[in-house]
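Appendix B, Record 12. Input sequence as logged:
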Amino acid sequence: MSLIQSAKLNGHDPYVYLKDILTRLPTQPASRLDELLPHLWQPQLQQ
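Logged structural output:
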């Protein structure tokens, strides 16, 4: 629940945010996990 609320507070659609981070998580380097936090997250450009 806190990730959903944090995403809302940062102006993100919670569904889009969770879908994106769960897709990225398996390949995200451990040193860059902070990029997936709601206050730092930037949506990946769709190609």
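The two ends are 30 Å apart (CA to CA).
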